Amino acid sequence: MKITPFLDRRLSRRFETYDSDGDGYVERSDFDLASARLTSAFGLTDDDVRAKRFHEQLLGVWGHLAAMTDTNDDDRISLAEYRTAFVRGLLGRPEAFDDVYVPYLDALLAVADHDGDGRLGVDEHVRWSKALMHVSEADARAVHARLDHDGDGLIGTEDLLAAWRAFYFSEDEDGPGAWLLGPL
């Protein structure tokens, strides 16, 4: 896979969202921090079943990411390793994407869907985006509006999954994936 300038910007931004402590590397501890931020933002304790499930799924994402990218086995991922994995096609395979992201998004919605309607309103979307991905409130509101295709003020797992697929696999600079983490 060739890394276009647009994909490079997306990968760099995604790497930043993974790097919770900002040290320039992605490590398991970054995923632990992200999980704690998200569940805390929704008032969940560590022993809440939704918090446990989300943490488990997030660590599954970490495990998959580390297995595909940590080429020097130092238990951390550099931006160069992350990019290289895409070039080699190890992360950029749409057929394997859903296996990791569907359970993760289901667990995310179980935490972020505060009112239990199975979809995210704008305020729920803003809270999870800010807590987990460091997306500003204004950007998260704009993303929600872009993902709310029917204009009912709600987005679901399929909307998020389609946006994540587009983020990684579409070169459409105005598509839903391009704006998922705020402007690039």
Describe this structure in words.
The chain is mostly helical and 184 residues long. It has a single domain (5-178), classed as EF-hand (Recoverin, domain 1, Orthogonal Bundle). The chain has 8 helices and no strands. It has helices at residues 5-18, 28-41, 49-69, 79-87, 94-112, 122-133, 137-147, 157-169. It is globular. It comes from Lentzea albidocapillata subsp. violacea. InterPro entries: EF-hand-dom_pair (IPR011992), EF_Hand_1_Ca_BS (IPR018247), EF_hand_dom (IPR002048). Residues 6-41, 135-170 form the EF-hand domain.
Give the fraction of residues assigned to helices: 55-70%
Number of domains: 1
Run of helices and strands: HHHHHHHH
CATH class: Mainly Alpha
Corresponding CATH superfamily: EF-hand
How many distinct beta strands? 0
Large-scale geometry? globular
Q: Classify the secondary structure makeup into a structural class.
A: mainly alpha
CATH T-level topology: Recoverin, domain 1
Specify the biggest β-sheet. Answer: none
Radius of gyration: 16 Å
Average of pLDDT: 90
Tell me the distance between the termini. Answer: 21 Å
Unreliable segments of 5+ consecutive residues: none
Organism: Lentzea albidocapillata subsp. violacea
GO molecular function, one term: calcium ion binding
Protein name: EF-hand domain pair
InterPro entries: EF-hand-dom_pair (IPR011992), EF_Hand_1_Ca_BS (IPR018247), EF_hand_dom (IPR002048)
